[in-house]
């Protein structure tokens, strides 16, 4: 495989890894928008129900039966919305976990391809570069000499002995 093809393969793998990351960010952004919209819709419903409750109570302030049933109805609706929102958030968390696992698997595969291409480019460059062989021979020449020569020993200093 020519060196240009190997370099192209390397850059293609890098671009693919960036595309995987961009896709993951877009999915996370969509998930966040979806949850924000659900929360806003729940707040709007809660405000409307609170206003409706206020209207019912203002219309019949002495009807305690109506008061009790209206409060119970509004409370039950609020609890239902809270439960539905919690379930949606839980489902989105599970989806995020699945997306994260898939993203990591894709990145590992793409980075494996990029590493392979980089190694091939480096090997191609090393085999075609005359300086590599010179450098290798120089390193071999110095390596045995350094291994054979013993390290210098430190001298112990003599201190004069005092006589009396």
What topology does this entry show?
Layout: H1 3-59, H2 64-128, H3 130-148
Overview features:
164 residues; 3 helices; 86% helix; mainly alpha
Number of helices, where a helix is a run of at least 4 consecutive DSSP H or I residues = 3
Secondary-structure-derived class: mainly alpha
Give Rg in angstroms.
37 Å
Give the terminus-to-terminus CA distance: 87 Å
Unreliable spans are none
Q: How many E-type strands?
A: 0
Order of helices and strands: HHH
> What global shape is seen?
elongated
Describe the sheet with the most strands: none
Q: How much helix is in the residues?
A: over 70%
The average pLDDT score comes to: 83
What share of the residues does DSSP label as strand, in percent? under 5%
């Amino acid at each position: 495989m020519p060196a240009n093809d190997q370099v192209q393969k390397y850059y293609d793998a890098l671009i693919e890894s960036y595309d995987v990351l961009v896709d993951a960010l877009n999915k996370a952004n969509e998930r966040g928008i979806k949850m924000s919209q659900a929360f806003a819709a729940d707040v709007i419903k809660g405000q409307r129900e609170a206003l409706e409750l206020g209207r019912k109570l203002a219309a019949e302030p002495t009807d305690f039966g109506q008061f009790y049933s209206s409060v119970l109805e509004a409370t039950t609706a609020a609890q239902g919305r809270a439960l539905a929102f919690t379930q949606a958030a839980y489902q989105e968390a599970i989806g995020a976990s699945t997306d994260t696992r898939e993203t990591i698997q894709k990145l590992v595969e793409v980075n494996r391809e990029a590493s392979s291409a980089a190694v091939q480019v480096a090997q191609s460059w090393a085999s075609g570069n005359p300086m590599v062989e010179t450098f290798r021979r120089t390193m071999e020449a110095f390596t045995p000499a350094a291994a054979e020569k013993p390290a210098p020993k430190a001298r112990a200093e003599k201190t004069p002995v005092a006589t009396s």
